[in-house]
Design goal:
Rossmann fold; four-stranded parallel β-sheet; single chain; about 35% helix; alpha/beta; about 260 residues; five-stranded mixed β-sheet
């Protein structure tokens, strides 16, 4: 089967899986906090064998969003860090990239004024371009945010500032899933961002299995949470099999597990 996948599982030193389960092994790369725990629980409930291989570590910068008429937050993590730092939006028009970010903001007691129809940088631009001409827009996010958002808002006539709330790095030791993919022992992978794709490939390269891991992914089911993630995978020779209609992990997990079922 053509596809992109990545994962991590308990394995012997030679990369072979150490269980005889018939459940499809699905690699997941979320940060090593409650998100990876929730992902494992969800995949197990769907009848899969989760392979947890966190590819993202969050390093807070200690910065908080600048005051501006419009403030754009692009992740739940960013909201949580702003809350921990005691920041609040005040009278700003608060924009969240998607439901998870908006939900975290509302849990903090903030009013979310706008969520785009498409939960991407391009979706944010489309939602804001008719509103922000002549306005100042603060974008608060990670150090790996897309230039699409900043350039699009500037093209719409906004004065844009950016605050990096956290850096995303690859955890030390990540990449067991690359060994599994290279050995043909991975059934599926669920990529949740372009950076998880990049970090998976970097980890595979460090282990000397990059090309074999890509080949293994292309024999597995690969899911990408949205078009930007799928495009990054394709640029590196990884075939994406499924993209969920909704850009959230629950939808991605269900779509990937469904795609592993025998025809």
């Amino acid at each position: 089967m053509s596809g992109e996948s990545s994962g991590t599982a308990d394995s012997d030193s030679d990369g072979a899986r150490d269980d005889d389960s018939d459940a499809p092994s699905v690699a997941v790369f979320r940060p090593a906090d409650e998100r990876i725990d929730d992902a494992e629980s969800l995949l197990t409930s769907l009848g899969a064998d989760p392979i947890a291989d966190p590819m993202l570590a969050v390093e807070p910068t200690g910065e908080t969003p600048e005051a501006a008429p419009y403030v754009v937050l692009t992740s739940k993590t960013g909201v949580e860090l702003a809350v921990e730092a005691g920041w609040g939006p005040g009278d700003a028009t608060l924009v969240a990239i998607g439901p998870a970010t908006a939900g975290a903001a509302r849990e903090a007691g903030w009013t979310v004024d706008l969520v785009p129809d498409e939960y991407t940088s391009a979706g944010l631009v489309a939602a804001l371009e008719g509103r922000v001409g002549g306005e100042r827009v603060e974008v608060a996010r990670s150090d790996h945010g897309s230039d699409v958002l900043l350039d699009g808002l500037r093209d719409a006539g906004a004065t844009v500032t950016e605050t990096v709330l956290y850096r995303l790095t690859r955890p030390e030791g990540a990449g067991e899933s690359a060994d599994l993919a290279a050995a043909g022992d991975l059934d599926a992978a669920a990529f949740t961002s372009s950076l998880t794709v990049t970090h998976f490939l970097d980890a595979a390269a460090e282990r000397g299995v990059r090309e074999a891991a890509i080949a293994g992914l292309n024999d597995a089911v690969v899911g990408a949470i949205g078009p930007p993630t799928a495009e990054t995978a394709a640029e590196h020779g990884i075939d994406v099999d499924v993209i969920p209609d909704d850009a959230d992990f629950e939808a991605l997990a269900g779509t990937v597990v469904d795609a592993t079922a025998p025809e």
